[in-house]
Amino acid sequence: MAKDIIHEPVKNALIKDGWTITHDPYPIRYEEIAASADLGAKRPIAAERKDRKIIVEIKSFVGRSAIQDLKLALGQYLLYLGLLEIIAPERELYLAVSHRAYAEVFAQTAAQMLARRFNVAILVVNVATEEIMKWINWQNTKS
Asked: Alpha-carbon distance 122 to 117, whole Å?
């Protein structure tokens, strides 16, 4: 399967932020379904003496239609989330997007509502500098 065009910048941003990449890609298998998310990563939590583990699905949103890209990204995210709740409940799932895609797609009212409604955790990355700009987890906000 081909990697997303922002795969390496997202991976490098995670590494710069102190994450260890554990899977590239991360296999998701349950019963007759076999899929794979783009990355698995972990980072120690010093105070708790355990690792925080995440899975990252990367989307560039460079298709002809932002709505089509959003539809596909949300569908894939929810599919993975449902399966991961069973096979890897200790891992958090994030949708990684470029800062451009976030500004153009997820800043729109409808996309924000959908992200909140379905608790889509978003990782915003500056792909030029390979730096994480923002972690958004709607479950941890009251807005």
From this structure: 13
Angle at 126 between CA 100 and CA 138, to 5 degrees: 75
For residue 83, the surrounding DSSP H or E stretch is helix 66-87
C-alpha distances in Å from residue 10, one per residue of 23, 50, 108: 14, 24, 23
Pick from 84, 70, 34, 20: nearest CA to 11: 20
Q: What is the pTM of this model?
A: 0.91
What CATH code is assigned to 18-50+60-92+101-131? Answer: 3.40.1350.10
| Pairing mode, strands 50-58 and 39-45 | antiparallel
Digit-coded pLDDT (tens) for 89-137: 999 999 999 999 999 998 889 999 999 999 999 999 999 999 999 999 9
Q: 20-23 and 39-45 as β-strands: parallel, antiparallel, unpaired? A: antiparallel
- pLDDT tens digits along 47-59: 666 789 999 999 9
| Three-state DSSP state, 15 | helix
Q: Which class for 124: exposed (0-12), middle (13-18), buried (19 or more C-beta within 10 A)?
A: buried
